[in-house]
Amino acid sequence: ITWVGDDDYGTKLKQDLARMGVDISHVHTKHGVTAQTQVELHDNDRVFGDYTEGVMADFALSEEDYAWLAQYDIVHAAIWGHAEDAFPQLHAAGKLTAFDFSDKWDSPLWQTLVPHLDFAFASAPQEDETLRLKMKAIVARGAGTVIVTLGENGSIAWD
After folding, report:
1. I need a labelling partner for 129 at 20 to 30 A (CA). Which of 16, 17, 71, 97 fits?
2. What is the pLDDT of residues 13-61, one digit of tens each?
3. Domain boundaries in the chain?
């Protein structure tokens, strides 16, 4: 479920997803620019650059979107997707929930969303005692498992 703009990027994205057999019935087209992230590959590590939020700035799930999500066992979203409001309801309904906070460790969603997550994903530059303490605290607040990617240094998980 997402929104794309009525620009060339949105048109191409929907065409390519459909060509690959992806159900695009909940990829909604809105007037404006499709969200874009500039990504470069440096030594096999993704480096994220500029982000244009475009039509996603006003994203909200419709009742039809909620009903469509309810038919699935696992629901995943990322911090840029603006779908966090759906997680309490979906988690309470027994869905496995996963959310990617990216490198946004200061996001208020760490306080409000964590109790509704089975899996919390994030990114950090390196593993250290501070990171391990953060991960332990996140699990203590209700997340089932925390997985942090460390770029070229692999990843670490805590449950």
Report:
1. 97
2. 999 999 999 999 999 999 999 999 899 988 877 788 888 999 999 999 9
3. 1-59, 72-159
Residue type present at position 3: W
Residue 103, CA distances (Å) to 47, 50, 74, 94, 151 in order: 12, 14, 23, 27, 11
